[in-house]
């Protein structure tokens, strides 16, 4: 059994670690609140874009636009599929990154011609270790999700899609279901699924609910709106992932702090036992010494 000094040293080390985990918990909590506020402030604009696209689709269901082109002439196994993969720059976030990697691997195993666009340093490192080629990685984006960075990603994938380098584009990110649950999800960005722009239930798609004028043409309006809509969806995915990362880190740091406290409690009991044993030993030695002195005096 360790002596009292060694136990005290270990307890001091654990207390120092607890200060770090508590600080990381507080920082992640602050970042989470800020990210959720930014997303809430921008959501109305992108919901308005989605409603506008829905109105156009409802009024012109026969519209033909490259953004809706599913390219049925290409066999599924021959399609070039792009994946925007959102990971973290740092660890200590529980299973956050592992769940994303697992979902990406499942998509790659389905076959086809996958092309990865990775956001996050850990994702880049993971795919390099696995020998999986990365088309492009976007650095310095995960820790500061904003619209300008989302537009950079949007411009790249839209260019690849319209030029034929990609036939489909998906985004793999982590959605925060609630404070205790985060899920890795995959969502199709391109071609735009018309089912995402559904009309009110029970109303046929070709029924005009209101009069709208689209100038110079519905296609031109769609072409102007869709890039902003995609950028908004990417921004939402980045913020959701960032929020999930911070929430996962909060939970991990909370668990680490609790484990450290449990260790301190156990070490405190051990320390008290060692200290009590040392005191008992000292008392025994004093008593033994006193008895020895008495015997000498009697002689």
Automatic annotation (TrEMBL):
Keyword Hydrolase: yes
Domain of life: Bacteria
CDD domains in UniProt: F1-ATPase_gamma
Molecular function per GO: ATP binding; hydrolase activity; proton-transporting ATP synthase activity, rotational mechanism
GO CC annotation: plasma membrane; proton-transporting ATP synthase complex
Stated role: Produces ATP from ADP in the presence of a proton gradient across the membrane. The gamma chain is believed to be important in regulating ATPase activity and the flow of protons through the CF(0) complex.
Name of this protein: ATP synthase gamma chain
